[in-house]
Amino acid sequence: MMDEDDLKLMEDLAQKASFLTRDLSSDEPVHVKKRKHESVIDKYEKVPRRMQTEPEKELIHLLPIKDKDGIIPQTMEKPVLDVAQNEEEDTEEMEEAEDFSEEPLPVLTPEEMAAQRRQKLQERKMHIAALASAILSEPDNNIKKLKELRAMLMEQDPNVAVIVRKLVMVSLMEIFKDIAPSYKIRPLTEAEKATKVKKETQKLREFEEGLVSQYKFYLENLEQTIKDWKQRKLKKSNVISLKAYKGLAEIAVKCLCELLVALPHFNFHNNIIVLIVPLMNDASKMISKLCFEAVKKLFKQDKLGYASLGVVKVISGLVRGRNYNVRPEVLKVFLHLRIKEVELQKDSEDIAPKKKFMTYKEKRKNLSRMQRKWKKAEEKLERELLEAEASESKEKKLKLHTETLNIVFVTYFRILKKAQKSPLLPAVLEGLAKFAHLINVEFFDDLLIVLHSLIASGDLSYRESLHCVLSAFHILSGQGDVLNIDPMKFYTHLYKTLFSIHAGGTNDDTGIVLQCLDVMFAKRRKQVSQQRALAFLKRLSTLALHVLPNATVSILATNRVLMQTFPKMDLLLDNESQGSGVYLPELEEPEHCNAQNTALWELHLLQRHYHPTVQKFASHLIVGAPTEGSGALSLDLSQRPATELFEAYSMTGMTFNPPVASVTPRRKVPSRLSVSISNHDTPI
């Protein structure tokens, strides 16, 4: 144990630096200062000694030699290069490289640069063509060349990078369209990979696996190109400018649209749908139009409905995810869906394979009695199998179409409920007008109330209100016949707003009005009173004076249908009044305007119209619209519906339809008076 005094002394010494750094074996006092001038010899003596040894030589072991005494190992010293000599050689090489780099590069003129660029581009084109032709000629053996061709999507030469990448994109797209099989390639299971198969089967598996992997990488390249352009990102190499990236992105979108339409059955089709549908709402009109046309074409050619269902799901999610802030064209694409009962029956007949059976004479001639018996049983079985297959495909299609329509109607109803002032409302009303006959009866009452409230609010344009009326009557003309609903308010709205159509911008709305009149009168003639039909006939005749010739022709064709459908319409061809009251054209109620007390004086004006077809229709209606005789119309005009006549005589191309016959100018024949005057003027 230490005393307290010794312990205190040790603590004091520990606080001083010299206690820690001092050599404890030295006898010098602690506080002695170091000598300022230490001799050079003492310093040298303190440096540790090292023996200068030669570097160990590295030995190379050779093959041993065997003699009488035994095996003698053989070695050889590895030659050591002189370091100084190596350094001299390195310095000489660097000097030569510097001298080489210091030589000025040849300066090319613009013509030489353009020629050099054309030469490079031609070489790349030939290489692309050689690879593509090799793949198309033997896709099984040359599937690995797809990777080489796809590597050219990363062309780094800034002079030709943009054009080469575009060419490779389009070339790969055409190759995949050509060599892709007509079925979806599924990945092999572990058990299938472990089993031994024939060489042909193994070769086919390798081809399919390579095709799917290269197709996947190609789609990823297209997607990355579009993303880089959308995010305004450039690669580190900066080979392509942002302006050029826009052109690359447009080509990538075109390729995706082509693959969407051409390969709806192949792998990664849903991935392409997820890429294309959001681009329908893109700010670029060109890209948006490309995607819209591709989806529309896909809907028109999709018979089964798998691809249509996938697109509808993505569109519904997009509209909801963007809080209904999308372009109306995104919803208008629903109008091109192939969901009709007539097309379903037609498609099921197309899909069912046609089987040709032998005739009775051929069986008697070529088959024995027992063979005929077996053939009869075989044909019966085949017929049953074909019927089962057709019914199964039809049921599957109906199921897919039902699911698709449910998603479409859910999207429409959400907009009607949450976004009534959205610019999507016209597209929704137009869609409801087309698919209203397929809506479930349970929704009819609520939907009609919503449509009437939209019309009564006054926030809709005239075209939108016409779509509401058309939707309501489509509902009532289909399954809605069983409902006890009076659509008088929709008749009244159309009657009082007919004069909103004129020869200006609203002339194009005549087509929707014609559809409304067809479903309101021709398809519901048993529920329409005579007073209502007379009021509409008179107002339509007055409207025919205010519109362009194509609208006038179609309105007069509608009047012809009304006069042939409803009895006693010829009351308006007589100028004597029928019953009490005076015709009130300003009254908004068609049932109470006393239309039976007026006459169709407008037809006399239309007989003098400058359009020959209008004159024919007016003359035909004045004599009571007969179906035969001298006052009957030609078959070309009488058998065509009003909507078709409206399109046929359209003047959108700023041309007169039918064209005006050119009049050849007559040659002037000089009169006797002018001849006599000219004779007197001649000098004598």
UniProtKB/TrEMBL annotation:
It is found in: Nucleus, Nucleolus. The keyword Nucleus applies. GO terms for biological process: DNA replication initiation. GO terms for molecular function: chromatin binding. Keywords: Coiled coil, Nucleus. Residues 360-403 form a coiled coil. Residues 124-218 form the Nucleolar complex-associated protein 3 N-terminal domain. It comes from the Eukaryota. Residues 465-618 form the CCAAT-binding factor domain. Its main location: nucleus. GO terms for cellular component: nucleolus. Belongs to the CBF/MAK21 family. This is Nucleolar complex protein 3 homolog. It comes from Athene cunicularia. The gene is NOC3L.
